[in-house]
């Protein structure tokens, strides 16, 4: 697929996402009426859940939601810290989803899904760290219309023809030290401005559109970047 066709595809996807209601598509679990707390004050999640209040949350067992359009955890509140505690979150649609929130951190666990591992739209001030993501037919991480975040130290394992990460209309997002394998559609695609892609590694390419993005110290099969971006010190193996 050409860079121009990828741009058109990304715009179409973002228009569809922007016209959706301010909620993640898919069915999460119920909202807990009386949440259980650990001694350190964190709120326990031990089943498919929809988070509607700010706070610090921790997963204490493997979670699976295989209902039609099922989502393991849906986040609908600002200022949420979610520690997966080394456990797995599985959803038939995607594992974790959030739309229209600020101040989000997700870390330390495994996401498994037949589609997207993670689906985030209109998110600001966020961090996605130290996850192992096993995606199905779609991206390990889909990120749209978002800004001021970090996606770092994640391992992504694909099973279909999509990219590891698609990020459309994003700004001031750092993609750092992520690794991916078996994503047939390639590695990372970013459309936006003032993003950084540093130290990522995978068996696919990096494609960057927009202005003022930094692409540095990556080890990938190819790099395609529009004029107006900064491409430095990457390693692209040559083929005989």
Q: What are its keywords?
A:
240 residues; mainly beta; 23-stranded parallel β-sheet; 23 strands; globular
Apparent shape? globular
In helices, the fraction of residues equals under 10%
Helix and strand composition category = mainly beta
Biggest β-sheet, characterized?
Answer: 23 strands, parallel
* Low-confidence spans: 1-23
Describe the structure.
This protein is mainly β. It has a 23-stranded parallel sheet that branches. It has one domain (3-232). Helices cover 7% and strands 48% of the residues.
Summarize the structure.
With 240 residues, this protein is mostly beta strands.
Task: Reconstruct the topology from this structure.
Elements: H1 3-18, E1 43-45, E2 49-51, E3 55-59, E4 63-65, E5 71-75, E6 80-83, E7 88-91, E8 94-99, E9 102-113, E10 116-121, E11 124-134, E12 141-144, E13 147-152, E14 155-157, E15 165-176, E16 179-181, E17 188-193, E18 196-198, E19 201-202, E20 206-211, E21 214-216, E22 223-225, E23 230-232
Parallel strand pairs: 1-3, 2-5, 3-6, 4-7, 5-8, 6-9, 7-9, 8-10, 9-11, 10-12, 11-13, 11-14, 12-15, 13-15, 14-16, 15-17, 15-18, 16-19, 17-20, 18-21, 20-22, 21-23
């Amino acid at each position: 697929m050409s860079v121009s066709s990828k741009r058109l595809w990304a715009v179409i996807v973002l228009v569809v996402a922007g016209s959706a209601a301010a909620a993640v598509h898919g069915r999460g679990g119920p909202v807990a009426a009386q949440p259980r707390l650990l001694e350190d004050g964190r709120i326990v999640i031990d089943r498919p859940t929809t988070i509607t209040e700010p706070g610090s949350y921790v997963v204490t067992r493997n979670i699976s939601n295989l209902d039609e359009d099922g989502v393991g955890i849906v986040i609908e509140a600002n200022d949420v810290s979610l520690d997966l505690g080394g456990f797995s979150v599985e959803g038939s649609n995607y594992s974790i989803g959030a739309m229209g929130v600020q101040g989000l951190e997700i870390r330390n666990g495994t996401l498994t899904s037949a589609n997207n591992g993670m689906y985030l739209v209109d998110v600001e001030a966020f961090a996605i760290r130290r996850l192992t993501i096993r995606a199905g037919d779609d991206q390990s991480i889909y990120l749209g219309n978002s800004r001021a975040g970090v996606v770092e130290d994640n391992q992504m394992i694909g099973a279909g023809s999509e990219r590891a990460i698609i990020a459309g209309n994003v700004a001031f997002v750092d993609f750092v030290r992520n690794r991916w394998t078996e994503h047939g559609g390639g590695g990372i695609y970013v459309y936006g401005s003032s993003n950084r892609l540093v130290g990522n590694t995978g068996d696919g390419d990096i494609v960057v559109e927009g202005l003022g993005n930094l692409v540095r110290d990556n080890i990938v099969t190819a790099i395609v970047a529009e004029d107006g971006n900064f491409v430095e010190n990457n390693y692209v193996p040559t083929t005989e």
